[in-house]
Design a protein that fits this description.
The protein is mainly alpha-helical and 370 residues long. It is 69% helix and 3% strand. The chain has 19 helices and four strands. It has a two-stranded antiparallel sheet. Strands 3-4 form a two-stranded antiparallel ribbon. α1 packs across α5. The two termini are 32 Å apart.
Length: 370
């Protein structure tokens, strides 16, 4: 499953980074430049898909009730207009950034969860035809086998127009190959632009297989340890059943105690999203205590990472990562603070001690207090 909140935060941060770098030298971006904007082909084409999707929405809003837009000549004129516009794309920074952010979000979503993405993409439409999907195909550069399997299924439905919900159901049932290689390649491409890992944007299901293994083994041990108890020859005497009960109860309590830490291990947050949910239920300090982990890095959410890197380290992710290494290597809060100030305070002007620095220092202090 995709952590959409974290994915949205990453998309905004990367869109800001790319637009800042690109528009530092240029005032506008053209269609040809969009095609080669990044090394991620799918992202470049999704920018165009988003652009023409917005243009179509605007075209629909401008349709006047006083004219016949179904007339053949009008349709041809509109088609020619679209061709001319596509050859003359020119977008300024403030209009390009939201397009880019949306395309980043869609690209990662489609790469990691193609079925879920396409279900959402088509379900909102009133009608979907096989021709509509064929037109969309030119924008989809990864998971192509899966996409074409959907097209085949839509064609085999025998309907010229399906509802959005019918199309989503067909997508849900599609069995085309989803490429793990495409997903890995896409994620690596994004990570080169702005560091990202699968754990940052994907919610991993909790491991449940370990719990049954424990319950299968431990009862066997309790039976071996107290084999005579179930076959007591004097069941009518009160002391004997009580002795049997008391001998069984400690075994059950032992099982509970033995399984408790192992079950907790399986329930530890595998992703930043799980950790974020735990923070809502408990304080951050309580989270540190429960998990008894000393790794500070795992307790920084994706949002905090972008906030601290942008506000305290000049958007330099390498500098931010170095600060984390310093914190994790320090023996105390005082040592960590001294080393951080000695390394970064002058370079990034921490003299005024912004609010973000205070928040950062509070997190560091919590790390050493538990």
């Amino acid at each position: 499953m995709i952590n959409k909140e974290q994915l949205h935060s990453y998309s905004l941060a990367l869109a800001e980074k790319i637009t800042t770098e690109y528009f530092s030298k240029k005032s506008e971006i053209t269609g040809k430049e969009i095609i080669s904007l990044t090394a991620i082909e799918q992202l470049n084409f999704f920018i165009l898909k988003t652009l023409f999707g917005r243009w179509k929405d605007e075209e629909d809003k401008l349709r006047s009730p006083y004219f016949n837009y179904e007339d053949k000549a009008v349709k041809e004129a509109l088609a020619n207009l679209l061709i001319q516009l596509s050859n003359n794309i020119s977008i300024k920074r403030e209009f390009f950034r939201p397009l880019l952010s949306k395309a980043i979000y869609d690209t990662l979503f489609y790469a990691l969860e193609p079925s879920e993405y396409l279900q959402e993409y088509f379900s909102s439409r009133k009608t979907v035809s096989p021709n509509d999907i064929r037109k969309e195909a030119k924008y989809f550069k990864i998971n192509t086998d899966f996409f074409h399997d959907i097209l085949t299924r839509v064609e085999q439905s025998g309907k010229n127009d399906l509802s959005g919900k019918e199309t989503a159901q067909i997508i849900k049932e599609a069995s085309g190959t989803v490429s793990a290689q495409d997903a890995e390649k896409t994620l690596n491409g994004f990570s080169k632009l702005l560091k990202i890992e699968i754990e940052d944007v994907a919610i991993k299901p909790k491991v449940e297989s370990s719990s049954p293994v424990i319950s299968m083994k431990l009862p066997e041990k309790s039976v071996e340890e107290t084999p005579p108890q179930p076959t007591t020859e004097v069941p009518q005497e009160a002391p004997t059943p009580k002795q049997t009960d008391t001998s069984e109860k400690p075994a059950e309590e032992t099982v509970a105690k033995q399984t408790e830490p192992e079950q907790k291990a399986t329930e530890e947050p595998a992703t930043l999203n799980d950790l974020f949910k735990k923070r809502e239920e408990n304080s951050l300090a309580e989270t540190f205590r429960k998990n008894k982990l000393r790794q500070f890095r795992s307790y920084i959410t994706l949002n905090q990472r972008f906030l601290f890197a942008g506000s305290l380290f000049g958007n330099d992710q390498d500098a931010f990562n170095k600060s984390i290494d310093i914190i994790e290597a320090a023996d105390s809060y005082a040592d960590a603070k001294d080393m951080l100030y000695g390394t970064f305070a002058e370079k990034y002007n921490w003299k005024e001690e912004p609010e973000e620095l205070q928040e950062f220092l509070k997190l560091i202090q919590l790390r050493f207090e538990v």
